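Q: What would this chain look like folded?
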Amino acid sequence: MTLLLTHRDLLTCGAADLDLVAAALEEMFRIHAAGQFTAPPSSFLKRPERPHVADRFIGLSAHLGGSFDVEGIKWIGSAHENPSRGLPRANAVIVLNDADTRLPLAIMEGGLISALRTAVVQGLAARRLARPDAATVGVVGAGRIAALTLHVLHSWFPSLAATRCFDLDPQRAGRFAEHMQTLGVCVEVTDRYEDALTDADIALAATTAKDAYVAPECFREGSLFLNVSLMDPTFAFVQRADKIVVDDWEQCIHSDRVLARMHRDGLLDRQQVHAEFGEIVAGSRPGRERDDERIFFNPFGLAIEDLAVATTLYRRATELGIGQQVSLVDDEWDVLL
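A: My prediction, written as structure tokens:
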């Protein structure tokens, strides 16, 4: 039998429990540092009549070993015009498979898991890479990822006192600020992206921009820049960093994002990257060492992150009897004979 888990099922299992998700992801990063995983390059489905960078499907498959020992795939679609239709830009489905029999253990809604693990990874990075007295956050892109990341940061950093946000759509930025106010986070909307980023101790770019625009002058001394999206920072901005941290070097360079482009142009190699984040979580590499360091964190977004959170919630669901059991796999000889 295969367990079907909806968005509401996952919430009942603890998908919004930040500590639960963080524990799963920290264990996953330790497993990543130990090399106990397999993750082929992502598969992209693009159509020529839909050229926007955010119009695509991505298939991310992996095996995650260690205490998880599962295989699976996240199939995530994105349509950049969906918000104007009253629909989420991205949606996803996650399939978990037994690592031995390869039979499907669960099929679950993946958009919540994908968005929440993205936000929690930024929070984990901030714990190790931001100054502990960080007081200001700057955000470019007033969307779901930014909202969840701010929720995580304000939950874990009681020192945060000011949050500024810029979006190309002022009305969207206003709605974002109103929504965050309901969560107890006061957001000031700015007229320029520079006003959001320049004075931030923790800066976040979470957009679908296809062209770089963030100038190096916005990378203040002692700050952490969370490059969640595609192409916001310029090459010069990245080169200003004292430390570059990635989640997975090989995944980062097999893409069309800023670090991959710099690598192809001969401007960045593995020796110039301070660490993969799993090395920092495992303690084999240091995080922030000085208050004045500029640190650039570039998470590609790994399938094993989705599998870690999905497996944790699946195990909780089986313990609590949540979800719908469905029969997907037929007996070997009963299909045609």
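Residues 41 and 250 are 9 Å apart (CA to CA).
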